[in-house]
Amino acid sequence: SQQGEEDPQALSIQEGENATMNCSYKTSINNLQWYRQNSGRGLVHLILIRSNEREKHSGRLRVTLDTSKKSSSLLITASRAADTASYFCATSWQGAQKLVFGQGTRLTINP
Amino acid sequence: GAGVSQSPSNKVTEKGKDVELRCDPISGHTALYWYRQSLGQGLEFLIYFQGNSAPDKSGLPSDRFSAERTGGSVSTLTIQRTQQEDSAVYLCASSLILAGGLMAFGETQYFGPGTRLLVL
Question: What does the pLDDT read at residue A95?
Answer without folding.
Answer: 64
